[in-house]
Amino acid sequence: MFSEVRHAILPLALRKIQRRGDLERAGLLIESLAKHWRDTKPFELLIVSPGSDTHLLRTSLPRFSNINVSVRPESDFISPFSGFYLMTGWYRQQIVKLKVPAMLGFGGYLTLDSDVCCVGDFDATTFVLDGRGLSRWEPKLHHDWWRHAADVVGSAYDAKGHGLSVTPNLLHGRLAAQTLEHVSNGGHDAATALMLRKARKPIGVPWTEYSLYTSVAEIKGNLFDYHVDWNTCYAADVHLFSEQSCVWGADDFERLVKLPNGTDPGGKFIIVQSHARIPLERVREYCLSFAS
């Protein structure tokens, strides 16, 4: 089901007050991918943005020979009559991460955000084990969205279960398409169906793209046809994500930057939270300090 992973999707809407900061973070992500991508063919990064941001992104992001960056507007993939455009940015990103790879026929693909950085070498087969993806998991009892997602898709909630965790993660285009088809239930497009669902629960987080994706695949019985089970992923030598090296606040950063250069980050990707308000040059120095 997974033969290789050489695609990634990055939804990116530039905030008016922090347009330059958003651009710089996306540029750092691209630079970090270029440093650590170890394959004979270029890595394919697709950025999907509002149409008003597309030109600026196309002309301002850095270019590297081993990373093919494409920038396309949301309107290339979403009907102007879709409820997608009535959703807030966080939920629009969720739809993009499922719908665009499904439409383009992606196999395995990485999901990224602009405050993600690559800190470890990888190639097209690093996250593939016996034809299945080494994804990132979490216990369902840690977040209420698992209970809500089960209600949305019509499945039973198992508090002892595990599901795919949040960005960055590894998904498959076929299961993304399966998710959207299921939540649309033969009526509205998936984004409109979810928008109407969200209107019933304006407060709180009723789902994530990953909780919907997991829950639908559990119903269909094909989750583990595509994804390595959580116990194996937790114990694997290769980890897509490193919690220990992430930066959530200024205190984290001051502690982590004291680590010697070349320290093993514990995974291939980390998050440096933009809300921590750390100068980007310091973030860059930290993220690029890990050994190749």
Short description, anyone?
This protein is α/β, with parallel strands linked by helices and 292 residues long.
Structure description:
- The protein has 292 residues and is of the alpha/beta class.
- Helices cover 39% and strands 15% of the residues.
- The protein has helices at residues 19-36, 51-60, 89-104, 145-153, 173-184, 190-200, 209-220, 223-226, 230-235, 250-256, 280-287, and strands at residues 5-11, 43-49, 67-73, 108-111, 116-118, 128-129, 132-133, 137-139, 162-164, 169-172, 269-271.
- Helix 3 (89-104) crosses helix 5 (173-184).
- The longest helix is centred in the first third of the chain and has 18 residues, at 19-36.
- The radius of gyration is 18 Å and the shape is globular.
- The two termini are 29 Å apart.
Note the overall shape. globular
What string, H for helix and E for strand, traces the elements in order?
EHEHEHEEEEEHEEHHHHHHEH
- What radius of gyration results from the CA coordinates? 18 Å
Ends distance? 29 Å
Total of helices = 11
Give me the count of strands.
Answer: 11
CATH fold call: Spore Coat Polysaccharide Biosynthesis Protein SpsA, Chain A
CATH class: Alpha Beta
User: From the helix content, strand content and strand pairing, which structural class follows?
Assistant: alpha/beta
CATH architecture: Alpha-Beta Complex
pLDDT averaged over residues: 92
The portion of residues assigned to helices is 25-40%
Number of domains: 1
Q: Which spans of ≥5 residues are poorly predicted at pLDDT below 50? A: none
* Main β sheet profile: 5 strands, mixed
As laid out across the biggest beta sheet, the strand order is: 3-2-1-4-10
In terms of DSSP E residues, the strand content is 15-25%
